[in-house]
């Protein structure tokens, strides 16, 4: 991995887990993990490897140039998308655009979930979650049984999945919309992706949502409701409740992924209160 010199590069944003720099010619962007984040070399290598394969499926993603190291931190250099902002930032800074933003997000997610995946190039989401399930230390027997039932009863279809679907992982500008952070791209039932977004809408810590997604939990919950209207056609409170009951059990599954990511930093136990909250809501 290249030891990279930041001379001439300008930092233009400082996020919860990365610093973002633009190249002297304005064509490239460096996303550099901060020292205490979970942005590991392993995660970035996985994203780099998957990005080109995702693009080959016709899914719009920014081009990745290369993986670099600055001191003890790792980062990826991407093509710079001018005037871009995440769906989260668009909603958080311009709440009057919430309906339009969430309609766009829902439509792009439906297209993603209508795309057949290359099963030779990407893993099965179910198998990935099963591998995390085998190493969990925070799930008790009751929680394990619930997750096991979900994994056993969910059809293993060859549908493209983002793997970490939420409003921070799509960026937009005047020319298009792009999925980003593709290190967990996989295939399987769209319910896995939808459960991830539901988890963010209802269980992500408020402080995290404000810092990383520019909005509080009630605003994110409204985003979910609008998303459900355009993704599922849930036009009434009754229809929304039906969608929620279908998707809510899948909010358990991302906890396996978050626990896995946090284990390297010794912070996996921080997911236990969230796990307990989800389990209580499923009673």
Question: How would you briefly describe this protein structure?
Answer:
With about 280 residues, this protein is an alpha+beta fold. It has eleven helices and eleven strands.
Structural notes for this entry:
With 283 residues, the protein is of the alpha+beta class. The protein folds into two domains: 2-79, Phosphorylase Kinase, domain 1; 85-281, Aminoglycoside phosphotransferase (APH), C-terminal lobe (Aminoglycoside 3'-phosphotransferase, Chain: A, domain 2), CATH 3.90.1200.10. Helix content is 46%, strand content 16%. The chain is built from eleven helices and eleven strands. The strands form three sheets. It has a six-stranded mixed β-sheet with strand order 1-5-6-4-3-2. A hairpin with a 2-residue loop joins strand 9 (170-173) and strand 10. The model has no long low-confidence stretch (mean pLDDT 92).
Strand order of the largest sheet: 1-5-6-4-3-2
Q: Which homologous superfamily in CATH is the superfamily of the largest domain?
A: Aminoglycoside phosphotransferase (APH), C-terminal lobe
CATH architecture of the largest domain: Alpha-Beta Complex
User: Looking at CATH, which topology of the largest domain would you report?
Assistant: Aminoglycoside 3'-phosphotransferase, Chain: A, domain 2
Shape: globular
Largest sheet: 6 strands, mixed
Q: Separation of termini?
A: 48 Å
Rg from Cα: 18 Å
Q: List the secondary-structure elements in sequence, H or E.
A: EEEEHEEEHHHHEEEEHHHHHH
Number of strands: 11
> Domains counted in the coordinates: how many?
2
Helical residue percent? 40-55%
Category from helices, strands and their pairing: alpha+beta
What's the mean pLDDT score? 92
Enumerate the spans where pLDDT stays under 50 for 5 or more consecutive residues.
Answer: none
CATH class of the largest domain: Alpha Beta
How much of the residues is beta strand, in percent? 15-25%
